[in-house]
Amino acid sequence: MPEPRRDSRREPQDGPVLLYGIHAVEAALRNPRRAIRRLLLTENAERRLAEAIAARGVQAERVIPRDLDRRLGPDTVHQGALLETEPLPESSLAELASRTDRGPIVVLDQVTDPHNVGAVLRSAAAFGAAGLVMTRRHSPPLAGALAKSASGALDLVPVALVQNLARSLAELGELGLTRIGLDGTASETIEDQRLTGPIALVLGAEGKGLRQLTKESCDCLCRITTPGPLSSLNVSNAAAVVLHAAALHRQGRAG
Amino acid sequence: MPEPRRDSRREPQDGPVLLYGIHAVEAALRNPRRAIRRLLLTENAERRLAEAIAARGVQAERVIPRDLDRRLGPDTVHQGALLETEPLPESSLAELASRTDRGPIVVLDQVTDPHNVGAVLRSAAAFGAAGLVMTRRHSPPLAGALAKSASGALDLVPVALVQNLARSLAELGELGLTRIGLDGTASETIEDQRLTGPIALVLGAEGKGLRQLTKESCDCLCRITTPGPLSSLNVSNAAAVVLHAAALHRQGRAG
Fold it and tell me: Is A119 in the B-facing interface, judged by CB distances under 8 Å?
């Protein structure tokens, strides 16, 4: 087996990027930019993925569920499908900005939970976001648990990994985007914003929220209207709410 | 230590209900209906919870983080706070229906992932839902991982556990509620519904969706408009989107 290509996102000790779960593996097989190193499937998973395998023209190696349990740990819901692959080519901020006719760019400020980032990617794909920006450090790997939670969206939504979020927000501003930070303590509400045109929605980690410099790099800060007894939302739920509102605005419907 | 009270939700082999995480424990301390058996806190957690501890008038037992790691497993994010408690008194469907002036009832059809159910509860608390209905079987325990994800909402949102979901939906209909099932294959969209008045929002498990009998027990089936390349959402994200829309409708704003 060839040595996996290294790139700047990965440490030298990393092995190949692993994707598991039916939806994640199917989306990877259907993504021509996604390299296929090894495809390990149970009989059942191979049946479910038959169409995508045929379209890609690859050969799967047959395994039993226990083989994948041993490889991934017994608590990993792999659904009998494991793909050894490589990181996707990275997107630039300019590439993401060129796609904002279809929806907002989502920017995550050090959200570390892979399930949350995966769910954000999934909502970004569902509501037609232009792409996702994350910091290269303090973000989960674009693989495994994140890809499983993204349910295929990792191969549908372009991701830009950046060194310095404040500088990247400045760059997005120069590219003509309005940068809207979500902040539970803001006085303005997201429901009063016009969410059309080129915008970046900036969301912070649970608990910590947006860092000070991130806040200062936004054009405005808004909160989601929460009439109930709790005022903070799970970050992926907050992203879904705002992406949904933006999708409605783009269709000319009030949000 | 007294033997914890058993109730119908718990198997005889169960120990006390365990809640961990700062927000979950704080909300429990502030809930007078929540029994306190033992409160185990690190020095740091006790400082963060000082106000709630004083308000409740309880005494915490001092532990070090490793004590809780040993008790809960090394991967559990307990934040130095563990509460041994009992299940909350159960709510009836009629009690939930009497609260629908403030928001919809959320009904989950065999959603088994505790993080998802917890996140749904959290959004239900944020957007002011009337309560949550789940099946007693095929739902995660109202404790631990669910309570942590709910971030305090388990002690804010009343939950009804039912034996038979179709029968419960019939009962909610008799109580005057309109039952709206979320179904990605529906032709109608949720954005075209009036989400005011007494309504129940029925959501299914990922992958499986709503069971056939559950669908037949709804007044209408709707999908969330997803203009992007993926059409399915994480169940907690779908719940957040619809609860947000319902909250806007109740404020007389288009959704």
Answer: yes
Domain boundaries, chain B: 17-85, 93-250
Instruction: Output the CA–CA distances (angstroms, integers) from residue B74 to A114, B66, B71, B180, in the order listed.
Output: 18, 8, 9, 41
Residue A245 — very low, low, confident or very high, per pLDDT cuts 50/70/90?
very high
ipTM score over 0.85, yes or no: yes
Instruction: Spell out where A9-73 has E strands.
Output: 17-20, 36-41, 61-62
Minimal-distance CA residue of chain A relative to B115:
A115
Q: What is the pLDDT of residue B254?
A: 61
Interchain CB contact of B235 with A (< 8 Å) = no
Q: Does A2 touch chain B (CB under 8 A)?
A: no
Instruction: Between A194 and A219, name the one with better pLDDT.
Output: A219
Q: Does the structure show a pLDDT above 60 at A9? A: no
> Distance (Å, rounded) from C-alpha A118 to C-alpha B230?
13
Tell me what pLDDT residue B253 has.
Answer: 77
pLDDT of residue A6: 40
Q: What angle do CA B63, B66, B67 make, to 5 degrees?
A: 50
- Model confidence at A3: pLDDT above 70: no
Positions of chain B with pLDDT lower than 50, given as ranges:
1-13, 255
- The CATH architecture annotation of domain A17-85 reads 2-Layer Sandwich (3.30)
Amino acid letter, residue A64 = I
CATH 3.40.1280.10 correct for A93-250: yes
Nearest-CA neighbor of A232 among B240, B199, B112? B240
* Collapsed DSSP state (helix, strand, coil) of residue B52: helix
Look up residue B160 and give its DSSP letter: E
d(CA A124, CA A103): 9
Alpha carbons A55 and A44: distance in angstroms, whole number: 18
- Residues A145-172 pLDDT 10s: 999 999 999 999 999 999 999 999 999 9
Neighbours of B134 (CB within 10 A): 24
A139 inside 8 A of chain B by CB: no
- Residues from chain B that touch A127, judged by Cβ atoms under 8 A, are 226-228
* Cβ(A200)–Cβ(A180) below 8 Å: yes
